[in-house]
Amino acid sequence: MSGGATGMKTYFNGGTAGEWAVKRITTICGTGLATATHLSVEDDETPAPHAWTLIGVRSNQRYTTRNEAGALLARQAPLGRPEAACAALIPIRKTPLWWELAQDERRAVFEERSRHTSIGMEYLPQVARRLYHCRDLGGPFDFLTWFEFAPEHEVAFDDMLVRLRASEEWTYVDREVDIRLVRTL
Amino acid sequence: MSGGATGMKTYFNGGTAGEWAVKRITTICGTGLATATHLSVEDDETPAPHAWTLIGVRSNQRYTTRNEAGALLARQAPLGRPEAACAALIPIRKTPLWWELAQDERRAVFEERSRHTSIGMEYLPQVARRLYHCRDLGGPFDFLTWFEFAPEHEVAFDDMLVRLRASEEWTYVDREVDIRLVRTL
Fold this sequence. Notes:
Two copies of one chain form a homodimer. Chain A is an alpha+beta fold and 185 residues long. Chain A has helices at 66-75, 96-100, 103-113, 116-121, 154-165, and strands spanning 9-15, 20-29, 38-42, 52-57, 86-94, 128-133, 143-149, 173-183. Chain A has five helices and eight strands, in the order E-E-E-E-H-E-H-H-H-E-E-H-E.
């Protein structure tokens, strides 16, 4: 997959071409996204007609402590594993109320009360993950999270999402779309 | 001053026109900025020729706790006070080592060890301040901080900068330019 370097923009283009075939696009809350049969992931803006383009940037971690980062690093798998033929792109926007919380309040909701990192850790190394930020870019979402996993782990992946979406943190999510993909190359 | 709304870009244009006259541009570390006699602050990109344009976005706070935010709010002054005829724009870039630190490590350097917020608080309400983020925008700096104060408080403002620049946090700063301005309108 393209779109790696920290500080560089990554373009997720939904349309009729790309290395990922769209299995389904599900609107979890808020406004959905237009239909697309394929997704391409690019390091640069491409002039081809797209149904939509979501732009994100890899950035520094905002809540993860050094201990948590170490635990994640020890367990996580890289993107691009040959067996990880499935992917999900989940764009999320949080409410103004979330962003008005102070850093310690957001951290407390994120981990101490919602156990976001702890829950995600249970699904490592089967589910590989990369977070892209887009709030400061002014786009329609605040984050784009990219997940890769083998077909036999999609049930576990769905289980993880059910748990996260039931958390206090998700009461601050007002737009979420779940795009499921299968590798075509 | 323009450039207010959260999530909107603000354009700081250095050149020969603008509501602020440049008193001096001092390179504190790293590469400097080209000479300019005036600075304009705009909500939109303007086609006029500029010596340089720095773009930032207001965003959520990254380190401030609720208690600190409350104390700042109780003491701080707004921008645009008639007596605040002086301003400073200080663009800063931090090192890759800083950005590789985990959130708890950055917080500890920022406040527990460098007392960034506590030092700034001592200069309220005389020095008004607004932070713009630009790291995720991919520009040449990570932050642009805008300060406004009355001429008689410039000595105190300089004193604050001496203290901050002597802190552990500043060992992670590898580019900093100090632009001093006087209101012309």
